[in-house]
Amino acid sequence: MFYDEFNFNLMLEQSMVGAHDEKERPPKIPVADVKRDMPVYVFLGSLAILTVGSLGLLDADWHRVAGRFPRLGRVFLEMARFSTERFSLTLLSFAETVAVSVLALIYSLVLGLVLGALAAENISPWKPLPPLIKSFLAFIRAAPTPVWVLLVLASMGFGMAAGITGLSFHATAFFGMVFAQLFEEVPDEAVEAVRATGANRAQVFFGAVLPSSLSGIIAWTALRFETNYQEAAILGMVGAGGIGYTIMAAANSYKLGRAGLAVLIVFVFALGIELLSTFIKRRVKV
Fold first, then answer.
1. Number of folded domains that form the chain
2. pLDDT tens digits, the chain, 286 residues: what are they?
3. Separation in Å, CA 36 to CA 28, 51, 230
């Protein structure tokens, strides 16, 4: 018994000494490796070349730009003197921006669920279909939202309808790609378990895939609504209606106080969306 106790104490001391030595051991310093770090060097070199090329293409008079910075401060001061002139029209245009954001979100969410289900490799009814749909969605996402809105404006004319349609193009492609990834992350065991009961494809989707992806769908939807609102506020400046047009019109007529109040409304609502989105994402993760 004494021999066993001696061995135990000896092993304990050795483990404590080893732990102590491990704590005192200095951390390893990464050594530069040209071959390993080559992608980083290529990226930084390409970025430097693009920066120099962009500055050359701009051909900007930087001395003149620096001289106008004080004017920028005066403009901000004028905008901070909020004016309630035609305030009812400002609120109406703001309501139009929110309506465009919400309607585009609803339409693109429904279409994104359908395209995401068809593009998910684990539940798609036809094997060649997922790469075709993903390529199509990537093509839609390659062009920014204002480009799609301008294309729609050419056929539908100015107004909210063009804004909703153009914004829905990019949002649908976003949802389709994101939802396809969410559906593909569902464990195969869950899908096979529902199929083993004799369920068809629709029952597998609504019984196993959709419930498993629900938390991710809610989080991405909240994030996309924030993006929709930001883009809708800008799209008004290209003729899609909303608060963006009010800000541009007020600024062009040098009514900076009215423009500043409209910008403040946009900022306050965007901050509220950000707080709500953060709250929802935290609740979903729990």
1. 1
2. 444 444 545 454 555 545 444 445 555 555 566 677 788 888 999 999 998 888 788 777 777 877 777 888 888 888 888 888 888 889 999 999 999 999 999 999 999 999 999 999 888 888 889 999 999 999 998 888 888 888 888 887 777 888 888 899 989 999 999 999 999 988 888 888 888 888 888 888 888 898 889 888 988 998 899 889 988 888 877 767 788 888 888 888 888 899 999 999 999 998 988 888 788 777 766 4
3. 17, 25, 40
User: Alpha-carbon distance 46 to 77, whole Å?
Assistant: 40
Residue 243 lies in a domain: yes
b/e per residue 253-264 (b: at least 16 CB within 10 A): eebbbbbbbbbe
Give the end-to-end CA distance of the chain in Å, rounded to a whole number: 51
For residue 15, being part of any structural domain is answered with no
**What is the chain's Cα-based Rg?**
28
Tokens representing 119 are 């593009």
Place of tokens 């080893």: 18
The rounded distance, in Å, linking the Cα atoms of 114 and 129 is 13
What is the spatial distance between Cα 123 and Cα 202, in angstroms, rounded to a whole number? 10
CA–chain centroid gap for 243, Å, is 22
CATH number at residue 173: 1.10.3720.10
Calpha distance 243→266 (Å, rounded)? 8
Distance CA 144, CA 137 (A): 13
Full domain range(s) for residue 239: 82-285
